[in-house]
Amino acid sequence: MNDSDFLEQTIALSKAAPPSATAFAVGCVIAGPGGNVLATGYSREFGEHWHAEEVALSKAGSASLAGATLYSSLEPCSTRKSRPVSCTQLILDAGIPRVVFALREPPTFVDCCGAELLAAAGVEVVELPDYAERVRAVNRDLM
Q: Active-site residue numbers?
């Protein structure tokens, strides 16, 4: 599987997120260095305030993520209203060296600079905007 295949999975996962008027529907896949899926998640899978990346990281548990890539349909948040730790910080704390996403978070709820913070910390950040319209479509009521 390649980056495109994993982003396809994130978009499919995002469609499982319960509707919310105050949060985007996001999907996340964490893949190991060999392309095996280590964990997946989607917004609100574990409850109202859970982000997709947070769910996937929680499912990955104590597994080593040193060579993993985190795929997210939307740029990982750098600021949260619902919890004290952002998904960007959770990714950094997990030691994930590479993040791929489709769409930068629009300023609907917060100003996000997750991609910049990750890159500044040495994480390889890849944006694949060819998938952005599909992410917008899933979140059409909020964008």
A: 53
Q: For residue 143, is it within any domain?
A: no
Is 101 within a domain? yes
Dump pLDDT digits (tens) for 64-99. Answer: 899 999 999 999 999 877 788 999 999 999 999 999
Count of domains forming the chain: 1
Give the residue among 8, 13, 24 at the shortest CA–CA distance from 136. Answer: 24
CATH code at 36?
Answer: 3.40.140.10
The pTM score is 0.95
